[in-house]
Design a protein that fits this description.
The chain is built from five helices and no strands. With 129 residues, it is mainly alpha-helical.
Length: 129
């Protein structure tokens, strides 16, 4: 396979920035509507005295508090992952924008005003050139 063909197949699988931002926003809104934002626990959890029995109950027939703790942990896991993806996406956008500014292609050329013209050489220096 030629390099051009592999480059085309590579870009065909990439997700666009607009689609990525839209899917991040939609997923975040859906989870926010479903479970809300994560909250901090009011107290530190204490391990139960009969840990083996509690683990068996959790696997076979979980109780209400066990399900609440599982939903709490999954909510935190989701939001941490969501923030990671959003932050790395914004960081990538910033790096690309910074590279384009450094290369001089991201923003239009500024208009030249008389206040920002390059300094003229002194007349005596100019005569020796």
């Amino acid at each position: 396979m030629s390099r051009a063909a592999s480059d085309m197949s590579q870009t065909g699988r990439e997700i666009g920035l607009g689609r990525l931002m839209l899917s991040l926003a939609a997923l975040g809104a859906a989870v926010y509507a479903l479970v809300g934002l994560p909250h901090l626990p009011t107290s530190l959890p204490t391990p139960p005295a009969d840990l083996d029995v509690q683990l068996q109950l959790l696997v076979q027939s979980p109780t209400g508090p066990q399900l609440d703790a599982t939903i709490f942990a999954l909510c935190w896991l989701f939001w941490l992952g969501w923030v990671y993806v959003a932050a790395t996406t914004l960081l990538r956008i910033g790096v690309i924008f910074g590279e384009r500014i450094a290369a001089g292609t991201a923003c239009p050329r500024p208009r030249v005003s008389p206040l920002h013209l390059p300094p003229r050489p002194h007349p005596r220096v100019a005569q020796f050139r």
